[in-house]
Each structure stands twice: as C-alpha cells, then as structure tokens.
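In line with agreed milestones, the collection of sequences with tokenised folds has grown. A representative record is reproduced below.
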Amino acid sequence: MLTSAPRGTKDIMPADVKAWICLENIVRRICGQYGYKEIRTPVFEHTELFQRGIGDTTDVVEKEMYTFTDRGNRSITLRPENTASAVRAYVEHKLYKEDAATKFFYMGPMFRYDRPQAGRLREFHQFGIEALGVEGPNVDAEIILLAVQVLQELGLKDLKLKINSVGCPNCRPGHRDKLQAFFKPNLGEMCEMCKSRYDRNPLRLLDCKNKRCQELGVGAPSLEECLCDECKAHFNGLKELLTAAGIEYEIDHNLVRGLDYYTKTAFEIQYSPLGAQSAVCGGGRYDGLVKEISGDDGRPGIGFAMGMERVLLALESQNLLPKFDESIDAYIVCPKKENFTLAFKTAIELRRAGFTVEYDFNGRSMKAQMKQANKFQAKKVVIFGEDELTRNAVTLRDMATSEQVEVAIAELASKL
C-alpha cells in the first residue's frame, strides 16, 4: 500500500504537467480579459460552512464529504467545492462594502468520497468563477460565455449548453406542492434517498441518478410553469443575451444541479463523448448563499465550476492535447572527473544566461554521456575534451548536423 497512491487519487507526472499548465494559462488569460481575479482559499474549512452553504439534503453533504475532528475537537471538512469558501472569504473580508461587483476565479484540488472512475476522482481539480454583487441576467450570460470561450479556445467541439431556471423562494413553494402531488402515488417505488427528500427538498427528486426514479419522474411539473414574474423576466433576459452572442443552448427542465444554493439560472456544459461523466462545466445563480453563510441581508451571486480532469480527458479523446518541445539547448559531456568543476561552473553560467542545460552526475564514459544527450534531445553537446581545455576551449557539436567547432569557453553562451 505504501507504494500506491490512495484509491481515488492520481499522481500528475512530469509528462502530463505541461498540458495542465497550458490549460491553466488559457484560464488565467481569459479570466483576465473578463476582469476576474484569482483567489486562493484554504483546502479545509469548518464543516458547518458546507452544511449550510451546500445544503444538508445534497449528495455531497450526505455521502461524499471528507470530514474529521481536529485536535481542538472542531469538525473540519476538506473542501468538496469552492463556492462556499469563496463566499465565506467575500464576507470575512467585507468585500460586499465595495460598489463594484466582486469577480473571483480559482483553480485547485477538491475532495469527495465517491466511487472512482474515469473523470471522477476523490481528489479532483476545478477551475471556477464567482461573481458577487450583481443581480441581472447580464452577468449570468457573461460567465456562461467565459466558460464557452475557454472550452472553444482549447479546441473542443460537440459541446452542448443546457440551461434552466430553478426559481426563487417566491415561486418554489407552488412548484414544491405540484412535485409532491405528482410523485406521491409512486413514492413507494422510489429509492430510499428520494423518499427521505420527498418532504425535505422535493426539487432534488428531479436530480436522482436511480434509473427507476428517473422513469417515475418523466412528465413531472416543470419549474418554468411556476416561475414568478421576476424569475421569468430574468430567464428570458438570459436567453435573449445568449442568442445575441450567437451561443446555442437547450432548455432542460430537469436540470437542477446537485447543490441546494442555486436560484434562478442553472446551467451545464456537456461533452457527450465522455459518456456518463459528460458534464465538464456547471453552475448557476445563488442569490441567498451570502445570507445563508453570514446571516446578513447578503448579496446576489453566480458562478460555475469546470472539472479540469474531465476537460483534459475530452481534449485527449479529440487528440487535442498540445504537443510540447521536450528538447534541451545543451548537454555537457565531461568524461574526466577532474574537469567536472569547470563543467559544472559552465553549466550554471549557461543556465543563468537562459539556456536549458543538463549534464551527467555520475561521470560515465563519453559514449554513455552522448547516449544520454540523445535521450534528452539535446540540440547541442558541449564536450570538455582534454586537448581543448588546454586552450580554455570546448568542442560544440550540433546534434542535428553532426558538425563540430571549437569554441572558447568565454564565448560559449553567445555561440549557443
């Protein structure tokens, strides 16, 4: 067990890290274009933050959180998502006092105890956006456009945007009553989780993954027919802005997302070739979350999270992972140990001049070191030969053409 990573976790090896960095760089550039600034919150928080923020009827809180008691007898949870943490930081640092909207983005690891599978790990990484302090549908459209732009710039195709309105506290009670009336005749056939949610949060019945429950939910009353005038206007405004931006979308009345804090807009971007784990991005509006966490009147907010592992899986499936030049500028060959100090000094000076340089740590033969230079895909080889060193020079070999020239050590950087 000591030689294996814990179940549901994965090492990101050097060969893969460059693809992650490429994705992160695109995210940072586009977020900067939209005026979003990076925030980094703790990996763990007080458990109550997620219980109150996410909702105690959600799968995340009920079944998936990594929760433990610390030495101070406090209940602590590894963050299963970052929205609650970002909102907590927004409240703690009193950013709600600023006139302008607060616009965050984040990238980092999240933790959920789930059955590991492709695109779903127990430690996974998310890129997310949070915009706080703005009520209208314009910011809803903006963050959806930002998510779409990130995925499109990566080259992904076959993406499907699904949107819905999950209403607000004014219009949900009517929908709640209709849902309970619809499901009541078949409640005995539903899973135990749905039975427990029937009274606590019937909207979550639409989000059940049990096949029989999904069948029983066909034809359930949609929230759209129960929306109040404000929520209707908000949803219509979102659709109008998405259409104006040339973004295709599909209305999915069963899209309620998995977290209780959503109000009005909910959306998801799917990449169907990934199968069961097709959702690469999802989010929505959470106008009551600041109040739920702080107890104050609060401010409106909206955000999304994008699964970085799933995005990279999608890129791999379309052969879109970037190709990287793994070559180095120079490899220093020094077969005699008594010359190594000078070779080492030269390598450091070349690195300080901006070159990527490797050398042999073990003082192996000339042949072994040349073989290693090929393995490193060195463009040039710098050979510390005995005759050349008497003239304070080295042999510079071009590995592509096999041409060799003698170069004074002091001029090596300029020749490279």
